[in-house]
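User: These chains co-purify. Model them together.
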Amino acid sequence: MRETMTRRRLLALAGGTAVAAGGASLLAACGGSAASSGSDNGASKVTLPQYIRSEAVKPDVAATDDGAMAVYYNYPRSLVSAVSGKPGEGAGDVNIFTNMFNPVPPGVGSNRYWQELNSRIGANLKVTMTPAGDYLNKLSTVIAGGDLPDSMLISASLANRSDILVRLCADLTEFVSGSAIKDYPSLANIPADAWASTIYGGTIRAIPIPRAVEGTIMFSRADLIRQRGLNPNPGSYQEFVDLAKGLTDAKSKRWAFGAVKGVIVFIGSMLGVPNSWREQGGKFTSEFETPERKRAVGLAADLAKQGLFHPDAMSNTLNVRDLFGNGTIAFDADGYAAWDLLANTYSVEVGGVPEPGFDGGQGVHRAGTTAFAITAFKKADKARVQQLLRICDWLATPLGTNEYMFRKYGIEGVHYTWQNGAPVLTKLGQTEVQLPLEYVIDAPDIIGPGPRDRVDTQRAYQSKVIPKVLANPTTGLYSETAVNKAGEIQKIIDSAELDIVSGRKPLDSWDDAVAQWRQAGGDQVRAEYEKALANRPR
Amino acid sequence: MMSALDTRAAGRRSPGTPPATHPEPRAARRQSSWQRFKRDRFLLLLGLPGVLAVLLFHYIPLIGDIIAFKDYRPYLTIWESAWTGLSNFGVIFNGDPAFLNALKNTLIISLLQIVLVFPVPIGLALLLNSLLGERIKRFVQSILYLPHFMSWVIVVALFQQMLGNAGVYNTWAGSHGLPTLHIIGNTHLFYVLITSQVIWKDAGWSTIIFLAAISRVDLELLEAVAVDGGGRLRQLWHVTLPAIRSVIVLLLILKLGDVLTVGFEQIFLQQAPVGQQASEVLDTYVYNHGIVDGDWGAAAAVGLVKGLVGAALVLTANKVAHLFGERGVYASW
Amino acid sequence: MVTQALPGSQARRMQTINGTRPPGLGIRGLKGIVLLICCALVVVPFIAVVATSLADQRQITEAGGYVLWPHHPTLAAYQAIFRGGVVTRALLVSVGITAVGAALSVTVVALLAYSLSRPGTWGQRSVLMLILFTMLFNAGIIPNYLLIKQLGLVDSYWSLILPTLVSAFQVIIMRAFFLEVPTEIIDAARIDGANELQILTRIMLPVSKAVIAVVALFNAVAYWNAFFNAVLYINSSEKWPLQLVLRTYVVNNAAVGGDLPGEVLPPQHSLQMAILVVSLVPICLVYPFLQRHFAKGVVVGAVKG
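Assistant: Joint model of the three components:
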């Protein structure tokens, strides 16, 4: 097996017991068990929670073990109750810290949705919301202050994450490991690879907010492509360039691309660039050290020279989505969740371009991060932790349940009404149902429900990229430096890419940047990953 | 005539020149400290709430700056964290060429701000002051101060939209056969861009303090100049400017304390189009080298060094001001 | 306007000063042009802000951001932000904090500046240094948070007021203005038996209206614009000031944090601009009242005249 690790294999090993598959040490470790690698080097084993797909509602196309999302064409109208009784009965005040991306909703005193939520859960949820850009500061000060909330979102970029989780947060292993997760059926519905990011010091310290393997998609304006009679599914790099050229017309303010990063990564995937790292015989090679990655940067610079980028693309301050929506740019590399947003907001036809091989055939598709972030609990007695887990189980209920419909849309007739078979938020719903519960815990993402042709397109795209998904081999391995220095070393690469693509520096300056990257922490990250990998039980 | 005027102005001890030594302080010096304390107790009592607030809300947290010498981890207390000596200062004193480049950019931008930005509100205030119509004056001033209230995120986006390569101006100029301007993303114009944005955003707002200073101009003096047949320029030169000179000097000295700090958010938001070589300043360097990742100890270390440099500059500038007969921030009595 | 408010003798004086040699047409024209350009540079982008807040989503999308004139003006953005009462509530919170904070600040700063403005008082130089240094050295956010927590001020409005009560810059500026008040007047008052508080309130403050107005304005604006302390110290979103609510509209959409693929951020350009306009209104309302004290000639002339 090469570095292509599919989710199917990964999950097959995560069935509950730590299966050691001979030879496939990485996969076994990834799926079945993981060793601590941060503060202590104990090779203790932990069994990941069993993945038990929710059967609440039968999807039109089921989720698959290699990471395809379930597909729903319509909203189920006969809802089931996933939880009987009130999950937080007797829990009293529950302090929850999380971040938010939306405008702040009214406080609990004047928010009927929030009040109803509390009464359905049977506890007083005190949600402290912080704008995402400020959350890390908030979390750090609260940790320093020593009085933790009951539940807190642990950002992926929180420094010293391992120490903080192990020293300050509740150990969830006995409650969720293996078949124990059955007590929390909706948490069991979260795929095992998402749980890999919750293991610290050989214990499960948090619950993951799952994200689908599809990760970033190169969205295209399918309508514009059709109008110009171009080929929407380029079969090679050259065909992709032809498509981009066909969509560019500087005179009428139309360009192919609006941002640099996504294009480099897309070209890189045609060339088979590893997803962050490549592992071979216990040794890691960074994607930045591969000649293919350098070549991708050079090719992006060529495209820039040919005028395929928006003239202000290097500024990083363009509102790329708006430009995509109004047709100024034709491609937008964005998270998979943006598909519906782009299509709905701008009423345009959105397509996804799967990566072709550079000279034809298949490229690779980078697996997205398996979890947005993780949610940890303050150390507390067993009963309290179980209570919090029950509340989170309620908050993770999937589509088709009463709980899900309430969580996402509020009370029928008050916060939403049914229109053409879909729930539509009322004005009250638009303001009140903004509580960022999806950043406490959420069910795995799904495709749809939505307009049939769009769901079909999304489904077709998914079926094309899932077979060529390329996983990040460090998933589930912990490197302190990778977390603590992430921003710093990433910045070195980002600046080098912009310098080269904008033509300020020659392509050969890439080598200096990579050397600088290695020195600033890249080599240390590599060493820590290699050590973590070696310490894994086989 | 000229000299008569000067004598007159000097004799009146126009605002701006230090007060003639008052007999009181000299007498005060002869009193013992305790006597003076007793004499001034009521005055001191008035200042007490402010001093207490400063001690409580500035100096007590400042004790926390000892994490500059520690490997501070938020899950430990400040006292529990391990001492690391001066290693946190490595982020500054490592001789990294990128750091030196950032220092260079910082000093150039700071210098530009002192030379180009600082005088603008003074000129604007004088210009406003010379307007005859009170209504127009107020109206214009009310307009000019508005940009101060826009956050940098919005200011940067506005500049982008107006002056970007595909912005309003260039699109318009392009379609009318006029020369287009390559401003955003032009490394050579980065300093100019940053400086003009600061002027745009804050010049109007900064006139306020100078207008307040001008409001103290002695009418008798202006009148005297006018009676002597002096025109408006003479009034400006001999009366108005001297009157606000002490405020100008004071603000300039205080500005020096900030020499190593140039608008972080403004520059951070605009680094991408021109690259780090042209745009990295001290604060962004520090941010990009670890502080972004929660390295609190290093952040404190950088703050301390910047404070020390600022303090040295302010105290020196103050001394220099004394040499030129200005009062500065505090007098050396 | 203000000329009328002045005592008759001063009005005449202003006439002498202004009237002796009216500036030439060329100079006036030049001034006019300079100010016109300055105003245009400010007004055009500002019109774009207001226009965008009134524009519909379609036009904004077509323009790719700001629009210069709304084709189909709509108040939808304003209705949207005032729906649910969050912004209204935050406005009240901000107004309260600004009013209380600015009033307290001006009082404390004026008292401190005055006590430091009399020559030769005990410990003056040390206190001045103490204050000056707070401009140069700042504690990190964690020690500040620990203090607020120790004082039991977490989630209290006071945590947004007290830490920024005394600004060194303001103390130094106000002291500089106080120092310029002729000593003779104060000495005369002292000989008449006035105590320090009386000297401050009856002599210093009336002749220093300009600087008091400036410091009041600085404080009001600082309290009005502050959001970061609220991020750290306030847990209940009902207690958020307007600027923090505004931040959930603006910054989350900006490129600051940036790298979060897949997190869905709704486009809401008109909302951002609407809330920016809303946040400017109170400042625009208060400003004229303070501005009148910057008018020329009122202060020193009033004392000496």
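The beta strands of chain B are 70-71, 82-83.
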